[in-house]
Design a protein that fits this description.
Elements (H helix, E strand, L loop, with lengths): L2 E2 L2 E4 L3 H13 L1 E3 L4 E3 L5 E4 L11 E2 L1 H8 L17 E2 L5 E2 L3 H9 L7 E3 L2 E6 L2 E4 L4 H6 L5 H16 L18 H8 L3 H11 L12 H15 L9 E4 L5 H12 L3 E3 L6 E4 L5 E6 L2 E4 L2 E4 L8 E14 L12 E5 L10 E7 L10 E8 L5 H4 L1 H4 L7 E12 L8 E3 L10 H15 L10 H9 L1
Parallel strand pairs: 1-16, 2-5, 2-17, 5-13, 10-19, 17-23
Antiparallel strand pairs: 3-4, 6-7, 8-12, 9-12, 10-11, 14-15, 15-16, 18-21, 18-22, 19-20, 20-21
Helix pairs in contact: 1-9, 1-12, 6-8
Length: 460
Amino acid sequence: MDGEYDAIVLGTGLKECIISGLLSVSGLKPAPEAWLITVGVQVLHMDRNSYYGGESASLNLNQLWEKFRPGQTPPKELGPSRDYNVDSVPKFMMANGQLVRVLIYTNVIKYLEFKAVDGSFVLNKGRVCKVPATDMEALRSPLMGLFEKRRARNFFIYIQDYDEKNPATHKGLDLRAMSMAQLYTHFGLDVQTIDFVGHALALHRDDAYLDAPALPTALKIKLYHDSITRYPGLTSPYIYPRYGLGELPQAFARLSAVYGGTYMLHKADATVVYDEAGRAVGVSSEGETAKCKFVVGDPSYFPGKSRPTSRVVRATCILSHPIPNTDNAHSVQIILPQKQIGRRSDMYVFCCSYAHNVAANDKWVAFVSTTVESSNPEAELAPGLALLGPIDEKFVSVAEVHEPLEDGSKDGCFISKGYDPTTHFETTVEDVLGLYKRITGHDLDLDSKNPRLAEQQQQE
């Protein structure tokens, strides 16, 4: 292990593996004031566990029981343990979202196989309804009355046609200056429509966005529409890898290894080493020390350098049927907006089945998650659990969400945030790209050519 590296990454969670892969394919070199992109970075990636994935690992049935019911064995009627890949932090991907763009940029997509997610739903007035994403779907949606459908159709047409670089599509509206609430008012949308558009299409977790400039939310709604129309036959904007999300960290780990990254698992005593000025200069384990220019990792590897900002309660459930009122979908997301269930934050339902190779035949795995708001977290999940129908098995966990105290520029410790309760990857990728910018000093240009891939193509 002794040696020198450009970067050491601690933890093999999804965020850490993406960063490790991005650093490996982009490369870094030190400069007087920042880190500049070049080619040829050396990355050492370590984990205290004996498996990949960390907090975002996928578990088989035996591992799930060992985590929640140690010493007990899973019922035989659930099927073989190896048929299960149960996500610890379940999330779908937007088909045209940032994570898919990162997969394409790094070429990690060649290691993965995806399937479409069947449905995207929202709870409205106690009913589970399909989320309309286009002007035509708005006209057919049971979420709105006749006149509201027309207003919503006009709103969706405006969003679908909107081009930030083409003023002709702005129709005289300055989305940078007006608030989102003002944009809704301009189109005359009612409270119920605003509720599902803001939370099930733009994927906001609360209503604070209403007073913010309209442009970011308009682009989020446009992303939803662009995702559902990206591939023929999609019935939702989401895709999901076969065999679960545990495939993602391993795929990025393979990418890093291809470009010279070194991986070491089972390093339970991995500890960051600091110089006299308090800057990270390496990592020690088992009596050896690897030196580096900076360290990246999840908050658990940096005691005293992060703070808890919230708690997430999550129920993992095994079912023998699809979720009722979702058209017998094998995979589905249901968003329960805060106002619909009398809360300050949204609740999320995620469901996948044997169709995505995450459960035994004729079994479904469903998750219900939200931000903790009381002293009885499990009880808070009742509105989401009520949508699932009969539950074969249920496991409940509560996790703290940590955020770094500093940006890493002073101490060389670049720390990721914890995972929020959302069942989509948009907030996760925002953190990854923010972490990349803190390390390199600039945004990752996903529209540019990956330098390592371009180099390979020239050699070929």
